[in-house]
Amino acid sequence: MKRSNAFQFHSGTSIFHRLDPLSKLAWLIGVSLLAFGAYIAWIQIIISAIVLMTALALAQLRPLEIIRSTWPFIVACLSFFIIQSLTLPGTHVAFTIGSLRIYVESADYALASALRIYTIILSSMVFVRTTDPRDLAIALVTQMHLPYRIAYAFFIALRIVPTIESEIKIIRAAHAVRGVVKSRSVVGRIGEMKRYAMPLLVGSLRRASMMVMSMEGRAFGAYPQRSFVDAPHAGPLGIALMTVTLAAVVAWYAALMLGFVHAIYVFAPA
Amino acid sequence: MSVGLLYLIVAVIGIVLAAFAYYKNRGSGVAIFVSFTLLEIVIMAIIGVINGVLGTPNAMVGRLFMTFSGSYGFLAFAAICGGFYIAGPLCGYIIRKPGAATIAETMNGVAQVLSGNPNGIMVLAAGFLQGFMSDLGFAFYGYKRWTLAVLALSGALAPLLQQIPEVYFFGVGDMGISYNLLALIIRMVSGAVYAIILVKPIAHGLAKAGVLRGTAIAKDQADLRVAAQQRA
Questions:
Q1: Mutate to test the interface with A, among B56, B64, B66, B67 (most CBs of A within 10 A)
Q2: Contact flag A80-B63 (C-beta cutoff 8 Å)
Q3: Does ipTM come in above 0.85?
Q4: In which domain, by residue range, is A71 found?
Q5: Dist CA B190 CA B196 (whole Å)
Q6: What is the pLDDT of residues A172-182, one digit of tens each?
């Protein structure tokens, strides 16, 4: 599976697929808040493990699928870990590589920092992979009382996003046919971005305006309210997930504020 | 003075600017809540979402950049932050109605969260705040002036409140007042520069391509073309 397809809805029958979008959105926000609470490795390991187990068990994503979909992020997080472990200062030497000293504090902070980034990316992937954008738009209207025209516009935009990659390939091919050589350098790639941005925007807006015309032709927006045949609603499982997430966030920040847990690594001297 | 106090002052400045914009426009015929057409909402969504999706890899590169640059990373990253603020001034300039920049930037934030931005849920709050402040840049002129200076103001104001949640989440508050103030100034300059360089060419290019029909900028451009033809 290509990474471009990773952050895109795939239908399924997992527990997360069956949950309503807003319960999952609350879970996503909760994970983000938990992950940003502290820069300590053991805490981030626990949060990462929980999110990974959720991806494997509740969203039924295969391990190989997760690795293939997020490998650029894994490489980036490993880079963070190595660079920060090597460069950050510390007081307690964990081990040495030649003349290079690796400190306990810096390695701990670096691991926490890298895991935090990966946790957030993985949780976003779980949400997007298991949530139909149409259900999300409907839930925003029925459960969060957002004006339905805004929710539907967002839905249109989300539908166009997965086509961006293929659109870029078409533009690149069109440029190649006309003799524009693909650049390998960073400066060249920035130039390419500039060349691609305009046709990409024009193409997306053109398709969107066609959709708008079609929708308005069917009297979309004629009434201030809109009804839905199959509106998602929070079931017992969704309510349980939201309650657990909220309780975890409140307990976590209370522990941080009351000083039961330190927000940054504190190495106890022997 | 502590960094907390500095950001409290920044927040107060933001609120005062919002109140100033409100009182300036009160009674001048500029409504605060203007309805958008479906096409306008879709334009805001498309620009916001595309900017958001493209912003996620940029945020990843930014994180690497910050890691390589040590304590100066946040400052160095501030220089390219203007790219993240572009959806607000661009939509404000195209649609020319109160709230356009705010809605576009909020959608930008949602798209970034959904596409796995490593900065997590913080980008949602940041998106709303930068859009709101971008809107104020246009509100100061009653949504009637569309010069480069107004665009620069809109871009420069974007990071004013947006930096507050970022400072908390990135933990750079401990770096001192001058460090934080410098980061804010660099972000404001970056926002202004990006807005000056990108907004007009993109907006006029899109209008020329005919995909903004029915928007304020398309009407403006059509009027200009008619006037030019009459002169010729």
A1: B67
A2: yes
A3: no
A4: 1-143+232-270
A5: 10
A6: 888 889 888 77
